[in-house]
Amino acid sequence: MSEECTHDCANCGEACAEHEHEDFSVKLHADASVKKVYAVVSGKGGVGKSLVTSLLAAEMQRRGHQAAVLDADMTGPSIPKAFGLDQHATGTDEYLYPALTSTGVQVMSINLILENETDPVVWRGPVIAGAVTQFWSEVLWDDVDYMFVDMPPGTGDVPLTVFQSLPVDGIIIVTSPQELVGMIVAKAVNMAKMMNIPVVGIVENMSYFKCPDCGSVHHIFGDSKVDAEAEKYGIKAIAKLPIDPVIATMVDAGEVEDVDASGIAPIADYLEKEKSE
Q1: Of the candidates 55, 34, 13, 15, which has an alpha carbon nearest to the alpha carbon of residue 201?
Q2: pLDDT grade, residue 122 (50/70/90)?
Q3: Which of these, 166, 189, 178, 274, lies nearest to 235 by C-alpha position?
């Protein structure tokens, strides 16, 4: 145990003997039901985690599964905007109701609770982590088949809380084609190993640009490295999303459910296969 130990094991990443066998899992509300939970992560910001989370939820809903999104990015929530949600969350003394998108995806985000969506969340790490667990335990998630947790970047308080408190079935890594992809993937894979959670897929966002006039493909940020990284770590499901102004415009307009999600299909196929086995 470190000499600087605060004894706050729930927000500590040290693998010391004192909390090696501690159980920090948080139970769902008795009336809620969630079958599978997948965390969407990255070692850095700005790579498109919220886009991938939204596309996956919309695609699984389109395939006939009940999908949900738990927006764990408390200081930079963008899920409600992507789905065009502008209402406030409602509830009772016992629980909150998730907001429903136009196709029925269940969503809970801090922006659905704030008085104004532009109000900053100026909270310290433990308070933010506590809010994440409340979104899990105090929301009436209704018969959810697939929940996707949109994570903040990095490996800080919130990812640690999610991995320790929620029954995460797997991690989906989001990255981009630049050279630092190796570092991003390595950080996510290593944290997954520490938490004993499998990495089920990797999505390379901004992988290429396809000219709408001539159809030629251009690798704006360099050649893709995602296949090599996936092989290196034994990651089976791989998806590549293009740079597409149409997608960006639709997401900004709250129309992510209308986006052509064919690029994300390999991840969705794998999740369906994994559930059926």
Answers
A1: 55
A2: low
A3: 189
- Tokens 């969705």 correspond to 268
243: left (phi over 0), alpha (psi -120 to 50) or beta: beta
Look at residues 1, 182, 144, 162 and name the one whose alpha carbon lies nearest to residue 60: 144
Residue the block writes with tokens 């596309």? 55
- Measure Cα distances from 109 to 11, 113, 134, 212, 259 in Å: 21, 7, 11, 35, 21
Q: Please count the helices (runs of H) and the strands (runs of E) in the chain.
A: 8, 12
Q: Which of 12, 258, 30, 37 is nearest to 166 (CA)?
A: 37
Whether the predicted pLDDT of 261 surpasses 50: yes
DSSP per-residue string spanning 100-167: E-TT--EEE-GGGTSSSTT------HHHHHHHHHHHHHSB---SEEEEEEEPPSSSSHHHHHHHHHS-
Pick the CATH number of 27-276 from 3.10.129.10, 3.40.50.300, 3.40.50.1820, 3.40.47.10: 3.40.50.300
Say how far apart CA 137 and CA 141 lie, in whole Å.
9
Domain boundaries, the chain: 27-276
Per-residue confidence band for 165, with pLDDT thresholds at 50, 70 and 90: very high
Q: Residue 271: phi, psi to the nearest 5?
A: -65, -40
Segments of 157-250 assigned E as strands? 170-175, 199-204, 209-210, 217-218, 237-240
